[in-house]
């Protein structure tokens, strides 16, 4: 069947199996060239194998929860949205969450996702107690920060290329309300943005950059800081049921937008509105968890606004000491280009040591582009700037990078390949992405 | 406060599992009954965790009709509602060639379900209340060359449910016949089903829950099947016998 990621590019005709039990799963893994697929929310081709995509939708059960420690044991196909649905009313929230809740547990582990709290709490690995994996020879292997450590370090962030994640134990965060206190700061340019990030001590932080500004306003942004609100600090109307936030109505994009709708002028108008609106709004706001963490989830299938050709997301991270220079160059390139991006998201990462995970200490910039020749050319320029400054790319978002760019950005790839060879994983596991990148 | 309990027979099917989730979400305690019921351990944990209801597993073989009386006797509590999702389609060419295969389909879709509902009906009648929900099939509305063996067994079950409803209507016990039409499940995954006429297991579960609240009698999960089956039924037999549908 035809498969693609969230970016709807590339679209690949792939053989898909959806095993119902462990025996069936092991049987398919043993056929080789396998890759597990969750809810298809990575942007490109990382969860597609032409000959052997294994859909994990039937492995979607929660198995145990410890009220004292907040440890949840669940199968890899469980959706983060379901975890929140069940556990938020009981006073628990994901310790680390990406920007959409429509991802699976297995996917979050394989890409070692990060959230707006990376600078404080690190990536998803920090809430992982253990993982059970079906290896290439069909055995189940458990790994954790203390057991099969080496294997664990490659499974987390390893893009599913060392095994099919079956089950895992994660720790949730105790919360007393479903509300976030958001403080919005305005930065007039990229230097101010960085300064605000460096002086920030909030649990959550993220900046939305208006990419169409130039000169002194290059990189003007709204920096949004967030903290969980204690139930006793809530206004009276919410404090009776502090863990119940109002349900929002879901909207949906019913059709693909024609490609011309998103152009430089419409995007400029949108960004101006967004920025002025952010400036005008109270600097302090109380907002519900869903609106704060998953603003785009309320518009189902928003990926269709980019039209039939789909879109690509560019996300890189730049080491801290090179961030200012690199971000200035990246934003200059973007603002001068003949293609449009709504908003870029900028995030400060804290320290991270890992075998193959994306984050490193520094700044991560992410932005969407409708797919066309201009944007592809622009993204190659952005690749080059990233490489010059020792940065690297988020494989969960990638759909178009060349093998050359990837290998230049990832000195760790050689180690991973060696490790994969030593276990026979090169034959056992592969995705369209791993083949494209030479992994 | 004690909660209501629902017994789900043939619990390993996709429709049964969707029914379990739906009723658990509504606060029912769940009894799951199936062959090799230990395979449902993860589902049991999942349902208990998600909905904080009591979920129990019970070994049940629809074909072993001798065991049905004791099966009912050994349930921890007599359920308020029982749903029978037991069913087996087999492969029609094989059902035609091998009488054993055909008999297996007939027993699985009629004899087994009717037997266990007969036992439960006795207990519900003694108690004076209860709802029996049988998942039958539109295939039982008229025999067709492509699946009349399965269809005839479902026809038997539909008729059994209709008679049971008639008998128990004055005894406080209600009987519901569910006719799902095409459903995208494990049982039908090899068939090429038209999407517009195909329901999901969740659609069936919602219809079952609604019908249990409204105490409906005969429920088509998708209303269009009511019209389709009406048209199929009124075709005169001397024409129908030449048709390929």
What does this structure look like?
The complex is a heterodimer of chains A (439) and B (245). Chain A has 439 residues and is α+β, with helices and mostly antiparallel strands. Chain A has helices at residues 22-29, 80-87, 105-110, 118-121, 149-155, 190-198, 236-239, 264-280, 289-293, 323-336, 373-388, 403-409, 412-422, 425-428, 432-437, and strands at residues 2-3, 12-13, 16-17, 35-37, 53-55, 62-66, 71-75, 92-94, 128-134, 140-143, 164-174, 179-187, 204-210, 221-228, 251-252, 284-288, 299-300, 311-319, 343-349, 362-370, 392-393. In chain A, strands 16-12-14-13-19-20-18-21 form an 8-stranded antiparallel sheet, sandwiched between helices. In chain A, strands 6, 7, 8, 9, 10 and 11 form a 6-stranded antiparallel sheet that branches. In chain A, helix 10 (323-336) runs antiparallel to helix 11 (373-388). Chain B is α/β, with parallel strands linked by helices. Chain B is built from 9 helices and 9 strands. Chain B starts with a strand and ends in a 5-residue tail after the last helix. The model of chain B has no long low-confidence stretch (mean pLDDT 95). Classes of the chains: A alpha+beta (439), B alpha/beta (245). The interface between A and B is small, with 10 and 8 residues.
Which key phrases capture this entry?
heterodimer, A: 439 residues, alpha+beta, Uridine Diphospho-n-acetylenolpyruvylglucosamine Reductase, domain 3, Vanillyl-alcohol Oxidase, Chain A, domain 3, 8-stranded antiparallel sheet, B: 245 residues, alpha/beta, Rossmann fold, 7-stranded parallel sheet, two-stranded parallel sheet, 9 helices, 16% strand
